[in-house]
Automatic annotation (TrEMBL):
UniProt KW Disulfide bond keyword: no
InterPro entries documented for this protein: DUF3667 (IPR022134)
Record protein name field: DUF3667 domain-containing protein
Organism: Chitinophaga silvatica
Listed transmembrane segments: 86-104, 214-230, 242-261, 273-290, 302-327
Organism placement in taxonomy: Bacteria, Pseudomonadati, Bacteroidota, Chitinophagia, Chitinophagales
Pfam families reported for this sequence: DUF3667 (PF12412)
Domain of life of the organism encoding this protein: Bacteria
UniProt keywords, alphabetically: Membrane, Transmembrane, Transmembrane helix
Amino acid sequence: MKTQPIRQDKNCLNCGADVPQRYCTVCGQENTVQHETFGHLVKHFTADIFHYDSQFLTTLKSLLFKPGFLTREYLAGRRVRYVNPIKLYVFVSFVFFFGISFLYPKYEPGHHKKAKASEHSVTSASGEGSSTALITDSSKQPADSLHKLAAELENDNITLARFDSLQKILPDSLRMQGAEAWLQHRSLDLKSRYTKDNLKEAIVEMFQHNVPKLMFVLLPLFALFMRWFYDRKKWLYADHAIFAMHLHSFLFIVGLIFYSLDALFQKKIILEIGYFIAFSYFVLALYNNFRQSLIKSFFKATALFFIYSFTIGFVFTIYLMLIFALFL
């Protein structure tokens, strides 16, 4: 297949700059005639496919077997032969979470609600009946009886309808107030709509759906933590962000491999080996990229591991609270 002929005009069709030879020195576009032959399209398609495959395989090989090497290459300006760190992270994280969704399937959305629908309607109906009775009787209740009814509000076995009824008929001084009332109402509402197992499934499903988004919050935080441990004049925040993307890409690949083995063989030691490999890689990546002693790299990796683990726990706790408050 012949190379597409160069246009006689020397202005770039993409950016308008002068093009002295075949490629624009400003945007890089080839200054060829607009109407391409079918053969030229096939040539471009084939070249792009094999170029990306070669680039990806080179990147994957370096990522898996040369800890810290990709980051060092990127910061040194040698980038053309490797996949961009952001593209690599997005692609690998997509494959990881897609694979995890097959290893640990989600529950059927809404089935728990359907299963509890009739029970909830019966409970609500009976609760409404008891509400009428309470309203009729409460005006004649002595003070000690009202205090007994108020104590019932804190009973974990109380139904949602009963709780709402008591909240309506009791005097303000005996009602639950503020956050305590909201929390009790929310807990009883969840109990009325979910079984214990189905509530767990609902939370797991929400996590599976939103953890990839949470990682886009956690990864920049990890880069920030790394900045605390290294010379700020020598290493910029962006340098740590590149390292974080390469490290997380490796962790996703190794995680998918070992979670798959765990699902297949169901041996606890499999995941323990995976964790050991991941931490060892982290230490070596710090050692190779930042050129400090192995001992320093080990202690910094340990400190970063605990800080990051605490942060993950904190972020997930906040997320659980949001699920509890807003989504369930």
